[in-house]
Design brief:
23% helix; hydrolase activity; metal-binding; six-stranded mixed β-sheet; CNF1/YfiH-like putative cysteine hydrolases; alpha+beta; zinc
């Protein structure tokens, strides 16, 4: 893997698997005309046939993309899996966790949006299971990239939500909290480890969307309704 900062993206390249997370002021929100234009422009910038995204609803729903002509933009889900080449699949985020998965042995790629609800419902874990059950991926071959998101330095939650997480059997044995500050990353990695995904196959980009100083990232916790959206995606060339 090669990890480097580009002007407008953090990039990770692993052979013909390319992963990008947007940085800077550019807004990729699909709810605005300019945001959709920015998403469309990625096709030319990265020489892709198409860029796909979904209507994220903080669920544990996963869709499978099998036809490049399919319009996924109105499908309500928070994870997308495909085997298509030259097709970028990605998720929007402005504090929630973007997670990219790929298996070079089968050619399967996936993108997941995991906010606190998706993390609690273990959508990343369910996506790994779906890759295995529906695409015959071996868990030992799956690589995971956890992108920029709000970290426990900035993510304070309610006492009720803390109790919800600490009472769930899936998260026992790992300390997810500093006071009432939740580490979404630790919860996601716990689920991956429980499935057999080894730490050596998990790459974490340790940028907090809320307080990072070295690069610009959109943060809803910091900026409220004025926040834009970052876009993280993977393409198999």
């Amino acid at each position: 893997m090669q990890n480097k900062n580009m002007k407008d993206f953090i990039s990770i390249v692993d052979d013909n698997y390319e992963v990008y997370f947007s940085i800077g002021d550019k807004n990729y929100s699909k709810s605005t005309m300019s945001g959709r234009a920015n998403i469309k422009s990625l096709e030319d910038i990265f020489s892709m046939e198409s860029v796909k995204y979904i209507s994220q609803v903080h669920s544990d729903r996963i869709i499978n993309l099998v036809n490049i002509e399919e319009d996924t933009s109105k499908l309500e889900a928070d994870a997308i899996i495909t085997s298509l080449k030259n097709t970028g699949i990605g998720v929007f985020y402005a504090d929630c966790v973007p997670v990219i998965l790929y298996d070079k042995s089968t050619g399967i790629i996936a993108a997941v949006h995991s906010g606190w609800r998706g993390t609690y419902e273990e959508i990343v874990k369910k996506t790994v299971l779906s890759m295995g059950n529906e695409y015959s991926c071996k868990i030992s071959n799956i690589k995971v990239i956890i992108g920029p998101h709000i970290h426990d330095c900035c993510y304070e939650v309610s006492e009720e939500l803390k109790t919800q997480f600490t009472d769930k059997d899936s998260f026992r044995g790992v300390n997810l909290f500093k006071g009432r500050n939740l580490s979404l990353k630790k919860a996601i990695i716990k689920g991956l480890n429980d499935l057999g995904v080894e730490d050596k196959n998990i790459l974490t980009l340790d940028y907090c969307t809320c307080c990072e100083k070295d690069i610009k990232l959109h943060s809803y916790r910091r900026d409220g309704i004025n926040s834009g959206r970052c876009y993280g995606f993977i393409v198999k060339k």
